[in-house]
Amino acid sequence: MDEQLELEKARKYCAYEERCQQQVRDKLYDWELHQKEVEQIIAQLITEGFINEERFAKAFARGKFRIKKWGHLKIKHELKKHRITDYCIKSGLQEIDEKEYIKTLKELSEKKSKLIKEKHPLKKKYKLMTFLVGKGFESDLVRDVVEKMIKE
């Protein structure tokens, strides 16, 4: 009977927001369940459609890009921390429209450029590029956008 209650709790946990297997597994271990029980519940949740790694990767990528303005590299890194497969990561990153991606990069660079107090163009360019690479954007894209924006 306890296992049914734990399964129901896990269903509610997954229904609240999109979860990956690792998040659910960690939560089940927090509830002090044993490995056998955890794996049975995970299998049941996958069968019932409460857990879907590809769906999670897509939602995660869309959300982090739109809300936090993260680039592909940071999203990919975070998905790997969640133990998402390369196939699902690739599928998730395809959710981000390339035109919107470049537009967001340009908007971020313009906004941040106005906030950087540095007067020397090279130092300003370096600070801006460091910020954008830190947000997870590819260095070659960052370089192209910043070069066009800040002339020496």
What this model shows, in words?
The protein is mainly alpha-helical and 152 residues long. It folds into 3 domains: 2-47; 54-93; 98-149. It contains 9 helices and no strands. It has helices at residues 2-16, 21-30, 35-47, 53-68, 72-81, 86-93, 98-115, 121-134, 139-149. Helix 1 (2-16) crosses helix 3, helix 5 runs antiparallel to helix 6 (86-93) and helix 8 (121-134) runs antiparallel to helix 9 (139-149). The model has no long low-confidence stretch (mean pLDDT 93).
Number of helices: 9
Please outline the major beta sheet.
none
Total number of strands: 0
Mean pLDDT: 93
Order of helices and strands: HHHHHHHHH
Shape annotation: elongated
The structure class reads mainly alpha
- Uncertain segments are none
Number of domains: 3
Beta strand %: under 5%
Helix content estimate: over 70%
Query: Could you tell me the radius of gyration in angstroms?
Result: 20 Å
What topology does this entry show?
Elements: H1 2-16, H2 21-30, H3 35-47, H4 53-68, H5 72-81, H6 86-93, H7 98-115, H8 121-134, H9 139-149
Helix pairs in contact: 1-3, 2-3, 4-5, 4-6, 5-6, 7-8, 7-9, 8-9
Quick tags:
76% helix; 3 domains; mainly alpha; 152 residues
Quick recap of the structure?
The chain contains 9 helices and no strands.
